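ARCHIVE CARD
Drawer: 12
Card no.: 0347
Subject: one protein chain, sequence and derived structure
Cross-reference: see card 0346
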Amino acid sequence: MWIDTHCHLDAHEFGAEARALAKSAGGQGVEMIVIPAVERGNFATVAALAAQVDNASYALGIHPIYVPQATEDDLAALREAVAAAMSDKRFVAIGEIGLDFFLPQLNEPTMRAKQEHFLREQLKIARDFGLPVLLHVRRSQDVVYKHLRQIRPNGGIAHAFNGSFQQAQGYIDLGFKLGFGGAMTFTRALQIRRLAAELPLSAIVLETDAPDIAPSWIHPGRNSPEQLPRIGAVLAELRGIGLDEAATVTSANARAALPRLTISLLE
């Protein structure tokens, strides 16, 4: 069985198909799909969708791309939403949060500072509630790592990891798992494939980031959680292991990174 640790199942690209896609993925062995929020406006949406889907759970957070329009009131609302969600067995983490220094509009000094402020405040929420985090670390691995060392949330996942081996080891040393998905399926993605092949298997979890980061066989089409088993097969091939081992170990890693998943899986 597989676990998709990062899938935006509530995205408008899925429309009314979201629940059917989750069910189809479940039929292919995807036992859990984690749906991260991206802004205050979809906190309730991801929670409601997870409640409607047998094999889904959710996280709450403010994505760095939504930080420009976010306010301090949104951080207060997040803290309140998290407090209320702690009694919900489908709630597993704070996320998607982090830093994005790839997009030019997010990489100017004022916006970098605002992103870092929102990351720190959300890490504090995670720490206060004893929750793991789902991290966005695009072109920002070192700066995110700096804040993690200072605030120390309860572990989590660095989603779509594409850093160096040294950076990867830093996250692993802090108790984090690293997410690999569709990018790993492209033969030209040499660094990501080396990481997936050579990092400790105990540090790796799988994800789709659907509807984004479509694997090579459907690129540039819409990604979906149904693609996870085939993405897992690529990981197995890169590492020279069997499919069953890839599924078993990466799913165990996901449960270790997101302990509340075990509660969701037992429902």
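Annotation on reverse: The CA atoms of residues 4 and 207 lie 5 Å apart. The mean pLDDT is 97.
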